[in-house]
Amino acid sequence: MVGLVFTYQDKLFRKRPRYRLKGGALYFAILVLLLLSVLSSFFILLERLWNEEDVQYMKNVELNDRIESAAEWLHAAPSLVQPGETKELTLFEDSVLVEIGVRCWGMLRIANYRTQWHRMEKKYTELLAAEDEPTYALYLTDENKYLSLVGQSSLVGNCKLPHLGIRSGNIRGRTFEGEKLVDGTVSPSDTQLPALSEHFQDFAAAYLNGDFTKQDSVIALSKVERNGLHQFSFHHKTCVINCGGSAYLDNVQLEGNAVVLARDTLVVSPGAQLKNTILIARVIRVEDKVTGRFQAFATKEITVGKDCRLNYPSFLVCLNNRKPGKITLGKNSTVIGGIALNGKNQEHKNNLLFLDEDDHLAGTVYVNGDVHFTGRIDGRLYCNRFIIDTPRAFYENIIVDGIIDNTSTPALFGSFSVSDQPFQLKQIAICQ
Predict the structure, then answer these.
(1) Measured between alpha carbons, how far is 365 from 55 in angstroms, rounded to an integer?
(2) Are 323 and 347 in contact (CB under 8 A)?
(3) Where does the sequence pass through the membrane (predicted)?
């Protein structure tokens, strides 16, 4: 009986399943848990990075929108920040500031924009031209004389003319050959031109007087001539290339934020490659067949040779203080940008702009004095008197084969404003 009992129990014991967990399985489970933890942490971190990237992308878009909005605001309201000023403005309700700084760059303006969110910063710099409103094809001061047109002369756009008006003229047997004397409205002019902004004159005078600022870095011309292309960023200091008394620019390449300064005479040869630079001297001479893009400021005289092309935006500016100034263009030369000839004393009416055959100007032309005009102006002209001086006779207020068209410039074209308070600003270029 005892044997039977043990046998039965033994059978029960043998039939009982044996479940044993090996040590390697435990390690495997721990490894799986670790991997799952790492993967979970990775996905959580990745989601966070995606969120941060989305936030940064959205903030980057917002900063760009702020700068674009600030630029549009300044374009529409130039008095918002005057040249020489820096202001911090709030555009939206989030109280994020946009810093706007404006300074003169010859006849143009440079606007710097800056905004920031935490460590993210955006900067933007543009070159601007100012425009007046309204604009006239011709503003001729009233000196109690008629304006006479001869040959293929044409005035397209609104004009301000002497109260005696405009008529067909006669010179050397020729009369007016067109259909309409003026294609636009005519209103009476004043005895004086609108005053030209003094910002332009003060800009050049400061450099000629040696009044450099902390924003200028002065180097000698010899350092420039030894090297090749020089590109000067508008985000850095202005490079003032001091030429001493006189200089002859040949085989030099200058681009951007640079001023070439000479106390006496500066000569530009066809071998010089100038782009968006400024020249300042007492006398500036541009030789024949020069091509470039620059602003030339002189206090006595500017001479441009034959077959020259000064591309947009180029400006010729003669601002005299004592003696009359003169700007002369040779045959078949083009200036796209503008011309200004002015003085601060009563002798300014002896200033002279001489345009030869087939000359072409585009932009604003302001001459507080006389104009010898036989070419074409796409834009507007302010002057006191037209003259033609021949060996046989001297003619006043007569235009022979001259065309002034204020409707032919593109909508985005910008020149310079005569007054200190322009109507709007137009972007010329984004500065690097």
Answers:
(1) 50
(2) yes
(3) 24-46
